[in-house]
Structures are given as structure tokens and as C-alpha cells.
Amino acid sequence: MISLNGARVCVTGGARGIGAATAACAVQRGATAWIGDRDLAAASETAAALGDRAHAVHLDVTDTASFKDFVQTVADDGPIDMFVNNAGIQHMGRFVDQDLDALRRELDINLGAVVTGTHLVLPEMIRRGRGHVVNVSSMAGKVTTPGIATYCASKYGVVALDRAIRAELAGSGVTLTTIMPAATRTDLTSGVRLRLQPTLKPEQVATAIMDSAGHCRDEVTVPRYLAPISLAEEIVPTPILWWLKRFVGGADYGAFDADQRQSYLDRSRAS
Questions:
Q1: Closest CA to 131 of 2, 9, 26, 29
Q2: What is the bridge-based pairing of β-strands 82-85 and 131-136?
Q3: Which of 46, 50, 89, 129 has the greatest CB tally within 10 Å of its CB?
Q4: Which are the catalytic amino acids?
Q5: Strand ranges inside 59-173, DSSP E
């Protein structure tokens, strides 16, 4: 377990949404938050609002050199106690209709950056015999949804990656938690008609992320009662499951407002 009072906590994609809420929660609990984001201006605004124990650093999670610089900048201040791989994007629409380069970039950010960040911080944590990594996946990694196929694949990949790494960390003193939130009301879900899906505020996910430092559970769904829902993928007959997903999925390719999502998409493509 990691005591957050006086800890150094890193958050990727920390300028907005879940990342910003996580940084705020870390500071509230006595930690110093290091916010990494490619939008340095927005990250700096978030850090300034949190006070002296929050710092903004430019980070492009798809660039290994940038990621190394971010980790080194924090390490120069002291050892990293908790690292949160949060950065992510989501494209929507039928798989065959989407731009292939955009889908590859989605994989690079949602899965590739988790590989990079985890790989960079674990060696020093293992050497110290202390540290906690949180990788933010999604319930979409357990319950696949039409219209966000690549997003589902990337989040499923995070779950599988973490399970394998966790086995390698046994007995090292270093822990790894996978957070799987339901749909969260951030820019990432702008324009999505969520219908019957449970929805969350970023602060609810942030609380679950920071709580994991105290319990270090392997996998945490937010809300907790959704944990058994992934069984539906295995036991519900395919025609019924397909109908249910179309009815309650909300991320189905016919269930979002493209105009409302445009500003988010423009920003996600602006790197």
C-alpha cells in the first residue's frame, strides 16, 4: 500500500477530464501531482488551480523520448510513488468507415502508451521494492460495443497486459491496479447518446483510482456493481446479446451526434 501523504503521483492525460480530477484528488490527499499532457497550456491551468503541489509537464504519450523526459523530470524531484496511465482517445463509427491512421493512433495512445509508461516506471519501483501503477482501462474492455471497435480492443489489451505483468510483479513489493469505469461524462463521450448505460462523473473515477493506493486490488470496476456484467459476453446467446448492445450501447455508430463531437475530435487530431 502507498501512503498518499507526501507521495509523488504522476498522471498522464491530466489536463482535463478523469486525469484532471485524479490530479486534484491526489493533491487533496496530500500528494504532489505531476500532470503530463501534450496540451501544456491546459495542463498548466489545471496545475495552477491545484496550488503549489501540482506541476505541469509537456508529454506526448506516443513519443518515447517525450515519455522518458516526463518520467525523468519527475524522478529528478524524487522517486515516483504512484503512476497513473490515463491518457486516452475514442473514435466512433462503423469500423470499416473510419480512417485507418486514426484507428492506429487510437491504439498507440490507449494501449501503446500504457505499455510505454508502465515499462519506464517499473524498473525503479522494483529496485526500491515499492510503487503502485494504475492503468485506466474501461468497461469497454470487458463488454464490447459496436461503433467503438478499436477502443474496445485497446482497453481489452490493457486488461490482458496488466494481468500478465501483475503475475511477474508478485513478491516485488510493487502493485498494479486496472481501473475499468463505465461511461464517464467527459469530452471523450461528448455527443454520445448513452441511453440506459450508467454514467459517472470524472471525480468518481478519480476517487477509485486514488483509493487503489490503499487497497491495491487487481481490477476495479466503477461502479463496483458492474463487475459481473462481463459474464454476459460469454453466456448470453449472440442474437440476444447483439440486440441488447444495440438497444443500450449508446456508442453504436447510429447513436451519437457528430456535430457535438467535432470539437473533441479536432483537438484529439491536433498533435
A1: 2
A2: parallel
A3: 46
A4: 151
A5: 82-85, 131-136
- In angstroms, the CA 1 to CA 148 distance is 35
Cβ within 8 Å of residue 240, ≥6 positions away: none
Number of H helices, E strands in the chain: 10, 9
Give the pLDDT confidence of 183-209 residue by residue, as tens digits: 776 555 544 655 556 677 999 999 999
Topology adopted by domain 8-268: Rossmann fold (3.40.50)
Task: Count how many Cα atoms sit within 13 Å of the Cα of residue 62 in the half-sphere of its side chain.
Answer: 13
Kindly list the strands in the beta sheet with 174-181, ordered across the sheet, starting from the edge strand earlier in the chain: 54-58, 32-37, 8-12, 82-85, 131-136, 174-181, 219-222
How far is Cα 247 from Cα 60, in angstroms, rounded to an integer? 37
* 3 state DSSP class of 54: strand
Please, where are the H alpha helices in 8-86? Answer: 17-28, 40-50, 64-77
Cis amide leading into 202 (omega within 30): no
- For position 264, what pLDDT does the model report? 55
In angstroms, the CA 94 to CA 241 distance is 18
Can you give the pLDDT at residue 260? 57
Q: How far apart are CA 63 and CA 57, in angstroms?
A: 14
| Interatomic CA distance for residues 135 and 111, integer angstroms | 10
Q: What is the pLDDT of residues 221-265, one digit of tens each?
A: 988 877 777 777 777 787 777 777 666 654 444 455 566 555 656
